[in-house]
Design goal:
The complex is a heterodimer of chains A (196) and B (775).
Chain A: H1 2-12, H2 21-48, E1 49-57, E2 60-65, E3 69-74, E4 88-94, E5 97-102, H3 104-108, E6 120-126, E7 129-135, E8 137-145, E9 149-150, E10 162-166, E11 171-173, H4 175-180, E12 186-187
Parallel strand pairs in A: 2-11, 5-7
Antiparallel strand pairs in A: 1-2, 1-8, 3-6, 4-5, 6-7, 9-10, 10-11
Helix pairs in contact in A: 1-2
Chain B: H1 2-36, H2 40-63, H3 67-84, H4 92-110, H5 115-118, H6 121-136, H7 139-148, H8 184-201, H9 217-257, H10 263-308, E1 310-312, H11 320-330, E2 335-340, E3 345-347, H12 348-369, H13 373-378, E4 385-395, E5 398-405, H14 412-422, H15 427-432, H16 435-439, H17 462-472, E6 476-482, E7 486-494, E8 500-507, E9 510-515, E10 519-526, E11 531-533, E12 536-541, E13 544-550, H18 551-554, E14 569-577, E15 580-586, E16 588-595, E17 604-606, E18 610-615, E19 621-625, H19 627-636, H20 649-655, E20 658-662, H21 666-678, E21 682-686, H22 689-698, E22 703-706, H23 715-724, E23 733-737, H24 742-751, E24 755-758, H25 764-774
Parallel strand pairs in B: 2-4, 13-15, 20-21, 20-22, 22-23, 23-24
Antiparallel strand pairs in B: 1-3, 4-5, 5-7, 6-7, 8-9, 8-16, 10-14, 11-12, 12-13, 14-15, 18-19
The chains are: A alpha+beta (196), B alpha/beta (775).
């Protein structure tokens, strides 16, 4: 995130060479100062806002902390694993590593009306747990202020994975809770039935 | 900074633990050797060796500031220093004290985090006192220690059972045994010994050791896993080669079939195709060569790394002599163990996993096999029983362990009685069984010949677990016994763990791998051969009725297995799990695969019927079926018969129309496929327009259902192409798309599509309606 800020600053200051070495040095010095300030601002921004990845699920826009998303890729080959609950789509191979792929629509009980495109997989990762989440589309990234996230008042099963909703209707997921949730882990030797 | 220092200390401590464990083991080994060796000269040699180990341990402990260990070692060291100078000799009391000192140290070392809790400093101090008393050695002292160490009774030294060990009072002045720090006199002694040792360090007996590097086993295992991944690349190469070959063949076939009108154009095209063909042939040749070289290198690397993971057996047997000593003492038996061939090398993972089975077998030997000294004397046997542990290598990739004792042997009658009771054999069968067959019954669970259930053995489960562990490692075990003379267990193990091999099968559009080791062979049968026995489908294989498992049904896959024709041929695998056999019906048997077993990802810890996944040459990932579990589940399922299903489908099938579905999204593809199939049509799928069009060339379809946005050739282009081909003028085309704009719809119609369905407002009935109207 900070990197991007710095890059912007560098691009902006391109082509301001004066030809006068002393003045150049002065400008450079000022820029250095400006840059260090910018970085400070960046830190500040980090504490009271959230950098998120936005994606579509059944016509609704969801988002998850960007720092939890390690990569986004098209869903091509997928192996279906029989005898698994519906929220498990299957497994995929990324550079020799196997990831389970989950369908959050089943977790959130969203309607299956319409054909899901499910063209994209986001790999989410936290504390050595990583898996894929299918999305109908990835919209992009953005900052949202923590203040802009309203708590969800009604209570549903899926609430434990949702931090809140912004005024624009963006649903903010609690990524860490989602990733760490034991309910989304299939262990058929221990408990025969899963919740979803 | 402070944090760094702490981290550094932590690292040092971790290194110390590894080093200390080695010294500890060496000291224990030295003590045991000393105990079993009566020869003066070699005793002196062992004392020297052990003395050095104690000294090194002391130094290492000092370096990480573990004062308790350092002091205890110092005490041990001074005793050894006197032993060396022969001012004292070894006694049973000496060994017992030293062994308990080593146990205490071992406890301390095995639990570094909680050392304070498990091993108090007090214990260390009182142990040190006991040790120091060895230097003084008078009987009253020995009694005093017995009391101070919590009532533990030591045999008085002069009653020692070993006639050869003598007890000599030593000349050194008595010391205050409560002192924590060893007295100066001892310190001097040890300093002197130290110098003596240092001067010997340069002696040639140290030279001649193989050069080694210490690598943590986890690093080496990581490295091994990485190397094992190379197998995947090998099969990827193989797949590329196969594809190139196919393209080459396709090109040369096309070349022959050309019939173009324009001669000049034809010539140019032919030349181009010829060049292309030559290029591809050259590339194929190169790739073929590279594939061979690469394959050999991969196999080589893997072989070497597997060898690097080999350890001499001795590394995994260090616990054995002490274990035998402790256990026989507890059971009041006398047992000697002789180990032979411990330099043989074996995969460290096998060595780790074989430890528990070995412990179990040796427990059995001592508990059931070897008799008490009194019983043995009655039978004219020497009072001390002998266990022989022999490791031999008869084949290059196989290790044989022969574990024998000269004890009571196994009683044939008792085994038969126990087996009859457990219902494993019938009484008629019992009469006709050979000795070999009878004795190997002990590997079944529920059989115990011991009338007493001790906490050690007698539950009748142990040997079954041993046999299972051995077979999991890819090995085998058998037993031979002569009543009153002894028992011999022979275990055969592979030197390295085997790479996974599996048979690739297809069920509908899904692929699975069945482990090769559970497959007997592939078979084919006609539906007319299916016989229903007790509401279960069976067929006759080699004169025996074997149950049939309709695999896709068992796995809850949507693909339907129906009997459409009495002469239809089924492909199947004959599977075995233990003694059970079963026939898995599949849609196709494709290939045999070599690969690495992978997990199913973090969210799938344990899945019914699936044990893992493996990668195919083209990068696809395929689940591995758990045959044992499948067979168990089948037995629990009451009815698995489809033979009762009517054969009426025969007529319907002839009229079934076939629809081609093209979509690049795998989920949409299978969803559409399922909807259309359940509406009663046959479905074939293609991943894009190009594949769809080439499928159309090859066979007859009654309709095309296609997505619009696809790579290579989109749905609009496909529709245009279909409409422009006079063969497909009347072929109905339905576009199913995410594009909702009226202009897109307009374009679809212009291309010549018969219907346009928007995905977001998609409902099953819409599609089925549209199909039934158009077909």
């Amino acid at each position: 995130m900070e990197k991007q800020v710095i890059n912007d600053a560098t691009v902006e200051s391109m082509g301001t060479g004066t030809g006068n070495p002393e003045q150049d040095l002065k400008i450079l010095h000022e820029r250095a100062l400006a840059l260090s300030r910018l970085q400070d601002n960046g830190h500040k921004e980090h504490t009271d806002s959230l950098y998120v990845v936005k994606f579509m699920l059944s016509g609704e826009v969801y988002c998850i902390e960007a720092e939890l998303v390690s990569e986004v890729l098209p869903l091509k080959e997928l192996a279906v694993i029989p005898c698994t609950p519906p929220f498990i789509v299957g497994i995929i191979n990324i550079r020799g590593q196997v990831f389970t792929v989950l369908n959050l629509k089943k977790v959130f009980n969203l309607s299956e009306r319409g054909i899901s495109e499910f063209n994209k997989v986001m790999i989410v990762c936290h504390e050595n747990i990583s898996f894929g989440i299918v999305a109908d589309a990835i919209i992009g990234t953005q900052y949202i202020g923590n203040a802009a996230i309203n708590q969800v008042l009604y209570s549903t099963k899926s609430n434990e994975f949702i931090t809140g909703v912004t005024s624009e209707g963006l649903i903010v997921l609690d990524g860490k809770a989602l990733i760490k949730s034991k309910e989304l882990v299939v262990n058929q030797k221990q408990n025969k039935d899963n919740k979803f | 900074m402070k944090k760094k220092q702490e981290e550094f200390m932590q690292e040092l401590l971790a290194d110390f633990m590894i080093e200390a464990a080695e010294h500890h083991q060496a000291i224990v080994t030295g003590l045991l050797e000393l105990e079993n060796n009566q020869d003066r000269d070699s005793q002196q040699h062992i004392i020297e060796k052990t003395f050095r180990e104690i000294h090194s341990l002391k130094g290492a402990a000092r370096a990480v500031n573990l004062l308790e260990i350092e002091h205890l070692c110092q005490g041990l060291e001074s005793v050894f220093s006197q032993l060396k100078q022969q001012s004292i000799t070894v006694s049973k009391f000496f060994f017992d004290t030293f062994h308990s000192a080593m146990d205490l140290l071992g406890q301390y070392l095995s639990d570094p985090a909680n050392q304070k809790k498990s091993v108090s400093a007090d214990k260390m101090v009182s142990m040190l006192n006991e040790v120091q008393a060895l230097c003084n050695g008078n009987d009253t002292r020995a009694d005093a220690f017995a009391k101070s160490s919590g009532g533990k009774q030591y045999l008085p030294v002069n009653l020692s059972a070993e006639p050869k060990t003598e007890y000599k009072p030593i000349s050194a002045a008595p010391q205050d045994y409560k002192a924590v720090n060893p007295p100066a006199a001892n310190k001097e002694l040890s300093e002197a010994a130290l110098q003596n040792m240092d001067s010997r360090l340069g002696s040639p007996d140290i030279i001649g050791h193989k050069e080694t590097v210490r690598i943590s086993s986890s690093k080496l295992t990581d490295f091994f896993i990485q190397a094992e991944e190379l197998i995947t690349f090998k099969s990827m190469f193989g797949y590329d080669l196969h594809e190139l070959n196919r393209i080459g063949r396709l090109l040369s076939n096309k070349n022959r079939g050309l019939s173009l009108q324009d001669d000049q154009f034809k010539m140019a095209l032919e030349t181009q195709i010829k060049t292309l063909n030559d290029d591809i042939q050259l590339l194929t040749k190169n790739l073929d060569q590279h594939y061979r070289i690469f394959s050999r290198t991969v196999d080589d690397v893997l072989f070497r790394i597997k060898n690097a993971l080999l350890l001499p057996f001795s590394e995994g047997l260090e616990w054995l002599p002490k274990f035998v000593r402790d256990l026989s003492k507890d059971l009041k038996k006398e047992v000697q163990i002789a180990i032979e061939g411990s330099e043989m090398e074996i995969d460290r993972r096998i060595l780790e996993k074989i430890k528990d089975p070995l412990i179990h077998l040796i427990r059995n030997c001592i508990d059931h096999g070897i008799e008490t000294p009194e019983q043995r004397l009655k039978q004219n046997k020497p009072p001390a029983g002998k266990i022989s542990f022999k490791i031999i290598q008869q084949k290059s990739r196989e290790i044989t362990i022969i574990l024998s004792d000269d004890g009571a042997g196994i009683d044939r009658k008792k085994v038969i009685q126990a087996s009859l009771k457990a219902g494993i054999i019938s009484s008629e069968k019992a009469l006709n069984m050979s000795d070999d067959e009878v004795y190997n019954l002990i590997f079944y669970s529920g059989i115990s010949t011991s009338p007493f259930i001790t906490d050690l053995s007698g539950h009748g489960l142990g040997l079954a677990i041993v046999a299972e562990s051995v077979s999991l490692l890819g090995g085998s075990i058998k037993v031979d016994t002569v009543p009153f003379e002894g028992t011999t267990f022979t275990i055969i193990l592979p030197v390295t763990l085997l790479t996974f091999r599996g048979i690739l099968i297809r069920l509908g559009e899904h692929h699975f791998v069945v482990p090769t080791k559970s497959v007997d062979r592939a078979i084919r049968f006609k539906s007319s051969e299916i016989k229903s026995v007790e509401n279960k489908d069976t067929i006759n294989v080699d004169g025996v009725a074997v149950g049939i498992m309709w695999l896709s049904k068992m796995l809850d896959l949507s693909t339907k297995t129906t009997l459409t024709n009495r002469n239809e041929l089924f492909h199947a695998l004959l599977i075995h799990s233990g003694q059970r056999k079963i026939v898995f019906v599949v849609d196709a048997i494709l290939d045999e695969q070599e690969g690495v077993i992978k997990s199913l990802g973090s969210q799938l810890v344990n899945v019914r019927n699936v044990s893992g996944a493996t990668l195919l040459g083209d990068g696809r990932i395929v689940p591995i079926l758990n045959t044992t579990e499948l067979i168990e589940n089948l037995i629990n399922t009451s009815s698995m018969s489809i033979a009762n299903n009517d054969l009426n489908d025969e007529e319907n099938d002839k009229q079934k129309q076939t629809i081609l579905v093209a979509d690049d999204s795998i989920t949409s593809r299978s969803l559409i496929r399922n909807i259309i199939e359940s509406a009663g049509y046959n479905v074939k799928t293609a991943v894009d327009g190009v594949e769809a069009f080439s499928l159309l060339q090859g066979e007859h379809f009654d309709m095309v259902v296609t997505d619009v946005e696809m790579p290579r050739m989109n749905g609009f282009d496909l529709t245009t192409k279909i409409r422009n081909d006079k063969n497909f003028n009347d072929l109905p085309v339905i576009l199913v798309t995410a594009l909702e704009l009226p202009s897109d719809k307009q374009r679809g119609m212009e291309c010549g599509a018969n219907a346009y369905i928007v995905k977001s407002s998609f409902e099953q009935s819409n599609l089925v309606d549209a199909i039934s109207r158009l077909i």
